[in-house]
Design goal:
The chain is mostly helical. A two-stranded parallel sheet has the order 1-2.
Length: 233
């Protein structure tokens, strides 16, 4: 088992999430070119994919809000829904890349097979399988950063009553505790994996709704279009 001293910490992940949310122009502008985490534990590639995952979670958050509007044309909502599909795919792809990078760094997955559908794993005897991957934990930390940011904004509103403010403050405390708990679990998983006591896998999401080869509605549309073309000839 490869022991590595350069594993990232959950605290660094949380700090990055908060820093990016606070950055002017985020998420439309994306991360600055020098924010890839070079020299930080985990390496630049890891941090690049963490940032990418967070970027698309933030864009998803904004589109989900827009998709709930009721005073705009249906075409605008349809555009929001299409954007949501694309952002969700990119978010999941980035989560898988995070897992690949970590598993290779931990010596649990062969680098040559990391990007395949079935990465080749080397696991210590007796190591337990963790059902949730480190990448999915980081994805959840990203979403919690958005929830914390949004709830904190609610506590500063001046157009609501004290009951709303008090309720928002209580929810913010609970969200911060949830994030701290999850961060602790991430650190524990990575430490156990480095010590050979635990492991996780790359779980391919195989999102079918965006793939015209697998989405039955899209397959039916293609078949109907092909039949119509034949009739027109």
């Amino acid at each position: 088992m490869l022991m590595t001293p350069s594993l990232p910490s959950a605290a660094d992940v949380v700090a990055l999430h908060d820093r990016l949310i606070a950055m002017p122009g985020w998420p439309k502008a994306g991360p600055p070119a020098d924010a890839a985490g070079a020299g930080m534990p985990g390496g630049a590639e890891f941090w690049r994919w963490v940032q990418t995952n967070h970027l698309y979670n933030c864009r998803l958050w904004a589109e989900e809000d827009l998709a709930r509007r009721i005073t705009v044309a249906d075409a605008e909502i349809a555009a929001n829904k299409r954007a949501i599909d694309g952002f969700n795919q990119a978010r999941n792809d980035a989560t898988e890349r995070v897992d690949e990078v970590l598993l290779v760094a931990l010596g649990l997955v062969d680098a040559a097979s990391a990007r395949t559908d079935a990465p080749q794993a080397t696991v210590a005897a007796g190591a337990r399988l963790n059902s949730e991957t480190a990448g999915s934990m980081i994805d959840r930390l990203s979403i919690l950063a958005l929830k914390v940011n949004a709830m904190r904004a609610q506590t500063a509103r001046r157009d609501v009553d004290e009951a709303h403010l008090e309720g928002s403050r209580g929810k913010l405390v609970r969200l911060l505790q949830q994030r701290a708990d999850l961060a602790g679990c991430l650190d524990a998983l990575l430490a156990e994996a480095a010590a050979g006591r635990a492991y996780f896998k790359v779980y391919r999401q195989f999102k079918m709704y965006n793939d015209p080869r697998f989405n039955p509605a899209l397959v039916a549309e293609q078949a109907a279009a092909g039949a119509a073309l034949k009739r027109a000839r």
